[in-house]
Amino acid sequence: MDLGYVGLGKMGGALARRLMREHTLRAYDLRPAVVQEFAAAGALPVQNLRAMASACDLVMTCLPTSSQVRDVIFGDDGLAQHLKPGSLIADMTTGDPNATREMAAQLKPRGISLIDAPVSGGPHGAEAGTIAIMVGAPAELLERVLPVLKTISPNIFHTGDVGTGHLMKLVNNVIAASVRAVTFEAIAMGIKNGLTLETCAAVLPKGSARSYTTEITLPKLRDGSLIGNFLLGLMHKDVRLATEMGIASGAPMPIAGLVRELYQEAVNEHGYDADINMLIRSCERAAQTKIVP
Fold first, then answer.
1. Is 289 exposed, middle or buried (0-12, 13-18, 19+ CB in 10 A)?
2. What is d(CA 105, CA 86) in angstroms, rounded to the nearest whole number?
3. 10, 169, 192, 290: which is the annotated catalytic residue?
4. Is residue 172, in this structure, part of any structural domain at all?
C-alpha cells in the first residue's frame, strides 16, 4: 500500500514518524521546511496534493479542523480530483462527525472511501506508540487499514461506521477539557488556602481524582512548564462541537456547556493559539492567587 500523510504538526508529525518506522511515506505540509525535515529523516517529499494523490492509494490527514480537511480533499487541485477509484482517505483530525459523513458521501460516487481515525494520548503517546486510535469505518475498510494503524499503536478501537471515530473523540475531549478545568480551579482554591502545587501534584495522581491532568499535566506545571502541546482554541472547538451534537440530538449537556464558556473566556483572554495550559492563568486571576510561577 502506497502511503501519504498530509499535516505534519505536533500530532500529525508524531504519527507520521511512527509510520516511517515500517513504511515508505510520502509527506506533505504547507510548510516546506517541515517537509524537508521529514525528507531528511527518510520520507518522500511531495510538492502538492496532486502529486500526493497520484502516487498513493491511502492518504492520511491530521489537520486542525474538518474545514481544512475539506479544503485538502475538495479544494482546487485537491485529493478528490486525482485519487484513483478504490483509494482510501483516513482522517486523523479531531473533526466534526457530520462533516466527515458528508465528505464520505460526496466521495463515494468517485469510488473513493473516507474513514475517520482520530487519536487520543498527545504527541508523547504517539511517539511512544501507546496512543488510542478510534476508527469509524465499515468493517472491510477497517481490515484494509488495520496493518497500517498497528504501526502507530496496538490500541485500536472500532467505534462503528464513518463518523463515530470523531464522535468518540469529542466524547473523550469534552471529558478531558472538563477535568482539566475543574482540576485547575480546585488547585487554585487549595493553594490559596495553604496547599502547594508540589503537594497537589504528588497526592492527586494517587487518589480518586487521578486523570491525565493530574498524571501528565501537574508534574509539568510543578516543574515550571506551561507547555501542554495543544492549542486552547482547538480544545474550545472540540467542546463546542460536542455541545452542538448534544443540542442537535436532544442530549442535555449543561456541564459541558459551562466548560465551553470557560474555554471561550480563556481564548478571549489569552488567544486562540495559546497553549491549553494557559487556562491556569485564568484560574489564578479568578482566585487571586498564583499556582505556577
1. middle
2. 14
3. 169
4. yes
**Number of folded domains in the chain?**
2
Domain that holds residue 183: 167-287
* pLDDT score recorded for residue 193: 98
User: Do 175 and 274 fall into the same domain?
Assistant: yes
- 96: its cell numbers: 466534526
Total Cβ atoms within 10 A of residue 140: 8
- Going by the DSSP 8-state scheme, the letter that residue 89 receives in this structure is E
Q: Is the per-residue pLDDT at 112 higher than 90?
A: yes
Q: Supply the CATH number for residue 264's domain.
A: 1.10.1040.10
Q: Are residues 10 and 148 in the same domain?
A: yes
Beta strand segments in the chain, E: 3-6, 25-28, 44-45, 58-61, 88-91, 113-116, 119-120, 132-136, 156-160
Residues 18-69 have pLDDT tens digits of 999 999 999 999 999 999 999 999 999 999 999 999 999 999 999 999 999 9
User: Does residue 169 carry a catalytic annotation?
Assistant: yes
